[in-house]
TrEMBL record:
Domain Peptidase M16 C-terminal: 248-433, 734-912
Name recorded for this polypeptide: Insulinase family protein
Keyword annotations from UniProtKB, A to Z: Hydrolase, Metalloprotease, Protease, Signal, Zinc
PANTHER family in UniProt: NARDILYSIN (PTHR43690), PROTEIN YHJJ (PTHR43690:SF17)
Signal peptide: 1-25
Keyword Ligase: no
Region span, Disordered: 293-317
GO MF terms, alphabetically ordered: metal ion binding; metallopeptidase activity
Species in which this protein is naturally found: Croceibacterium xixiisoli
GO-annotated biological processes: proteolysis
Family listed: Belongs to the peptidase M16 family.
Domain Peptidase M16 N-terminal: 97-210
InterPro entries according to UniProt: Metalloenz_LuxS/M16, Pept_M16_N, Peptidase_M16, Peptidase_M16_C
Length: 1006
């Protein structure tokens, strides 16, 4: 059950806790109040054994021992004499795929001081070489089977576990068995040789370097403070430079022998295969695994302790101030309690649900305070059980100004109110309605849960020492306990949430001298006034009370636009006002539907001087409201419904999108149509978005990745100011009145296409469209100068352009880019350029990772815009040490020239093509694939014409075609070169330095 209610710690500003990469449950000791009144949940009998594998235990599933949570009968559990446990199930989502997870109960908390980073290093070494796979063969082998690196073949190391992950497509017969054999060799007999260690350590150090910088220091500081006195304070999974450089064959093997033992292993398999066969494969390849000697005892992770003489009502302990120039101000305080292993039963999970309601009410109040003129940009309270070390509530916020004390008092005032009196029943009922929609939708979609997620849920439950529950069980428990959601009971859980043994606080500031640890501690100890004005007293809003869009109008034409079997029939509707619609009802994904609205001209619609308003659109357009609904009312009207309202834009169009369900499609359509027809222009969201931009701008200069996020899109569009990240000078000129003027014009212009795909009733949706988008006034056409725009690419430069960052001296980034085609007429060729990028990526990975770990994860991508006839890019980039930038450009040049002269080998192309094909075949089972491919097809016939050739365009590509593409796009002209270097090296690197253009400077002082 906890897998359905698990939350992650919310990251605020730069305070990022380096905790497990898997999520953890918010846990709460069960409350006895009302327990006897709860209806019993009966555990169903186990299935008949039948032809079971030798060690399968359907009558005694190990994960459910000691709990009354009903067993999820889809899983078959087993436990072998050597201690290996397994869980397998049949799952056909996506078809043909089998997801395998091998979990080892050892992470960075299991390391000795001299072994820091060894758990993660061994994860790397498993893929380097093993019993059945030679040096560097693992990744290429699985690529040939269609498993892409990162997405399908991956691993994680957390403080408490190491997990090898393989999502194997087309996993049939011999391929599946051979993959089990290879994985068993990787886990049981990796080649932990001195040579392999010397190869992998630089790659791990490159990963460490690329994850370093100000944010890493903030994460380290928060971990050291919040887990003071415990192992977690000093056990970052990435390790330390001295211990990694000192790693050798003997020391690494010693760690492996201690923890890579069968009794520490769990194998989880979920996929499109017979579970009996899966269980037998686990038993065959892991059943004879033996380890010598007795296992080591589990390490003592330590317990948080309260400071001597602390006030039990406000036990403030150690506080700390971290100064990081350029970073956004943020303050996090942790209310820390000891971690205790729990009895994961139904009553315990009822407590979790009460916790969730209490926490949701607090966070809604904090958000209301921020929107209503609070002194903080945003704030949250999140409970998390961290790495089986603490049970902590993290209160996080970002002050709007240097007056952090006012922001702290503001946040604490809201929490003081939560501790002073119970919430209202109306507040509770609102959150109940939200959760009911979530859990009901989970139960409705139980049959389409991805096998990879189901496998991860088991792994994560094992990690936190809990069980799992089927979605219908979660829903049943939630609905059966609604009588427990009373003000007094939620109040009791609120008090537990906001009290602990010790409170520790960390303030991150860009300004030295702004605060010290004692000032933060004194502010935490200062009594605060109860802030009662954040409580919501709003009455319910009904869609029936909202103004109509206009006069309803039925479509003037309906036609089948595309058909690929009865489940994949796409209908095109045309309305008299020019709106066009694509409809695709499906039945294989119950409870899921998506509404997407494409409109207007995208970035083309802005004048050159309106770039700042383009940037603010993503942050403020939706929240500025519609009709009578402001941001708070938009939240309120969505209560008890599944609605979404995301906004994005590209060169050619704007997009609204919402994930919904059949019963809420009409309301979803109304929201989007009303935003076009009845826009509201509340100034507060614009001012808030403006403040967020101003607060975060300087942080973009503190590492190479931030500079690339800030400037790369702008540079690749030849310094078009519409693609620039607005600097403070530009942002300070923005006004709510200017925002309204720009966006009110844009919302009225250009074509509108509405796509509704998923589990929908076709005729009900058509009727809803007639009342919403069919009722819109006729749109204004895009101006001729907007339609005719072309995007240009920067000139090639033999001397790379050098930009500066203010971060660590050992961090740099290098980019090489070329212009390629654009437009839907080139769709077949766009697919082939993706394969060129994959081939290039594999070569660049080999060149840079093996060059003494020059880069951990180079990136190569091809972007071919379909809605415009210009602006396509082919980009290769890597993060690396400054001294390696020349090596990157040399490697990229060499790869481009060789591919243009000789093309790839047949094996290289197969390694690039097979993962793409397998991904396509898997994605075709979901409606989202068809929606993404046909989006825009109501106006652009090429999207429909070239859809049937998608498989052939990849599958039939030849090495000669890749060679020709490389010659046309990569060798026909020199690339655009960019380096992001530390500020003290950029001017002396023999490169051209950044110069202002179009009023937008390129130095870090922007």
């Amino acid at each position: 059950m906890p897998c359905g209610m698990r939350r992650t710690i919310r990251t605020i500003g730069a305070i990022i806790l380096l905790l497990p990469t898997v999520t953890q449950a918010q846990l709460q000791p069960p409350s006895a109040a009302g327990a006897a009144a709860q209806p019993a949940v009966v555990v169903p009998p186990p299935p008949a054994p039948g032809d079971l594998p030798e060690f399968a235990r359907p009558d005694d599933p190990w994960i459910y021992r000691g709990t009354d949570i009903p067993w999820d009968q889809e899983w078959l559990f087993g436990e072998m004499p050597n201690g290996v446990r397994y869980a397998v199930r049949d799952n056909g989502v996506p078809p043909g795929q089998v997801s395998i997870r091998v979990r080892i109960d050892a992470g960075s908390l299991y390391e000795k001081d001299s072994e820091r980073g060894f758990a993660h290093l061994i994860e790397h070494l498993l893929f380097r070489q093993s019993k059945y796979l030679g040096d560097g063969e693992a990744i290429p082998h699985f690529q040939r089977l269609g498993a892409s690196l990162g997405n399908d073949t991956n691993a994680i190391t957390s403080p408490t576990q190491t997990v090898i992950q393989l999502d194997l497509p087309n996993a049939r017969g011999p391929v599946l068995e051979d993959s089990f054999r290879l994985l068993s060799g990787m886990i049981r007999e990796p080649t932990l040789s001195e040579a392999n260690i010397r190869t992998e350590v630089p790659i791990v150090l490159a990963e460490r370097r690329e994850r370093g910088g100000a944010q890493a220091r903030a994460a380290d500081a928060s971990r050291e403070l919040f887990f003071s006195g415990q192992l977690l304070a000093s056990r970052n999974p990435i390790g330390t430079v001295p211990t990694l450089e000192a790693a050798n064959q003997e020391s690494v093997r010693a760690f492996y022998r201690r923890w890579y033992r069968p009794e520490n292993a769990v194998v989880v398999v979920s996929g499109d295969a017979n579970p009996m066969m899966l269980a037998k494969l686990v038993e065959k390849y892991f059943g004879d695994w033996a380890a010598s000697g007795k296992p080591d005892p589990q390490p003592d992770f330590g317990t948080p302790t309260a400071p001597d003489g602390a006030d039990p009502a406000n036990p403030v302990g150690e506080t700390r101030v971290l100064v990081e120039p350029g970073q956004t101000r943020s303050l996090v305080y942790a209310i820390v309690r000891p971690w205790h292993e729990v009895t994961d039963n139904i009553e315990y999970n009822r407590g979790l649900l009460l916790d969730s309601i209490a926490q949701a009410i607090i966070n809604r109040r904090l958000e209301a305070r921020a929107r209503g003129g609070g002194t903080f940009l945003f704030a949250s309270a999140e409970r998390d059980k961290s790495a089986r070390s603490t049970d902590t509530t993290y209160v996080s916020f970002a002050p709007l100004t240097a007056n952090w004390k006012s922001a702290l008092n503001d946040v604490r005032g809201v929490l003081a109110d939560a501790l002073a009196q119970p919430p209202s029943q109306a507040e509770i009922d609102r959150e109940i309605a939200e959760y009911d929609v979530i859990f009901a939708n989970m139960a409705q979609q139980a049959s389409i849960q991805a096998g990879s997620k189901l496998a991860d849920d088991i792994v994560n439950a094992v990690d936190i020492r809990e069980a799992v529950a089927a979605p219908d069980t979660i829903l049943a428990v939630f609905r059966d306990m609604k009588a427990r959601f009373t003000p007094n009971e939620v109040f009791a859980h609120t008090q537990e949430l906001l009290k602990g043994d010790v409170i520790r606080a960390l303030y991150l500031t860009p300004e030295a001298g702004e605060a010290d640890a004692e000032a933060v501690r004194a502010a935490m100890l200062t009594p605060v006034e109860v802030a009662v004005d954040a409580r919501s007293a709003a009455e319910a809003i009904s869609f029936a009370d909202l103004p109509e869009i206009g006069t309803p109008a039925e479509p003037t034409s309906r036609e089948i636009l595309f058909s690929n079997g009865r489940e994949r029939q796409v209908e095109k509707l045309t309305f008299a006002n020019g709106v066009r619609v694509l409809l695709m009802p499906t039945s294989n994904e119950p409870g899921r539907a998506t509404v997407r609205v494409r409109f207007g001209g995208g970035y083309r619609s802005f004048a050159k001087e309106e770039g700042a308003y383009a940037a603010l659109g993503s942050m403020a357009l939706v929240s500025s409201g519609l009709g009578p609904l402001g941001q708070n009312e938009l939240d309120q009207i969505a209560t008890g419904r599944k609605l979404g309202f995301s906004f994005s834009m590209d060169e050619a169009s704007f997009r609204f999108e919402g994930q919904t369900r059949a019963e809420d499609v009409e309301d979803q359509l109304y929201l989007f149509a009303a935003k076009l027809a009845l826009p509201r222009w509340d100034p507060a969201p614009v001012e808030r978005a403006k403040a967020a931009s101003l607060l975060s701008y300087a942080s973009l200069a503190t590492d190479p990745n931030g500079v690339l996020n800030r400037d790369l899109d702008w540079l690749l569009h030849n310094r078009d100011p519409r693609f620039a990240t607005p600097d403070p000078e530009a942002m300070n000129k923005v006004t709510p009145e200017g925002f309204q003027q720009v966006w009110s014009r844009i919302l009225q212009q250009g074509p509108v296409e509405v796509d509704v795909f998923g589990d929908i009733d076709r005729e009900k949706v058509v009727a809803a469209l007639s009342r919403t988008f069919g009722a819109l006034a006729e749109r204004q056409p895009l101006p001729a100068d907007v339609e005719s725009q072309r995007f240009t690419f920067p000139a090639a430069n033999a001397r790379p352009l050098a930009l500066e960052h203010n971060g660590d001296a050992d961090q740099a980034a290098a980019v090489m880019a070329w212009p390629i085609g654009a437009g839907s007429a080139g769709l077949p060729q766009s697919r082939k350029t993706e394969l060129l990028a994959e081939v290039f990526s594999n070569r660049l990975m080999d060149a840079m990772r093996e060059r003494a770990g020059a880069s951990y994860a180079p990136y190569v991508g091809s972007r071919w815009p379909l809605g415009v006839d210009s602006g396509g890019t082919f980009v290769a980039m890597a993060q690396l040490p400054p001294a390696q930038t020349d090596a990157f450009f040399a490697a990229a040049d060499k790869i481009a020239d060789d591919l243009a002269a000789n093309g790839p080998t047949a094996d290289e192309l197969a390694r690039a093509t097979e993962p793409v094909l397998q991904a396509l075949w898997r994605m075709q089972s979901g409606y989202t694939f068809w929606m993404n491919q046909l989006e825009g097809g109501a106006f652009d016939a090429n999207r429909v014409t070239y859809l049937p050739t998608i498989i052939a365009d990849y599958q039939n590509t030849t090495p000669a075609e890749i060679q020709a593409l490389a010659a046309r796009y990569l060798a026909a002209r020199d690339g655009f070169r960019l380096a992001v270097l530390p500020s003290d090296k950029a001017g002396s690197a023999g490169m051209q330095t950044g110069v202002p253009a179009a009023g937008v400077p390129t130095t870090v002082g922007r």
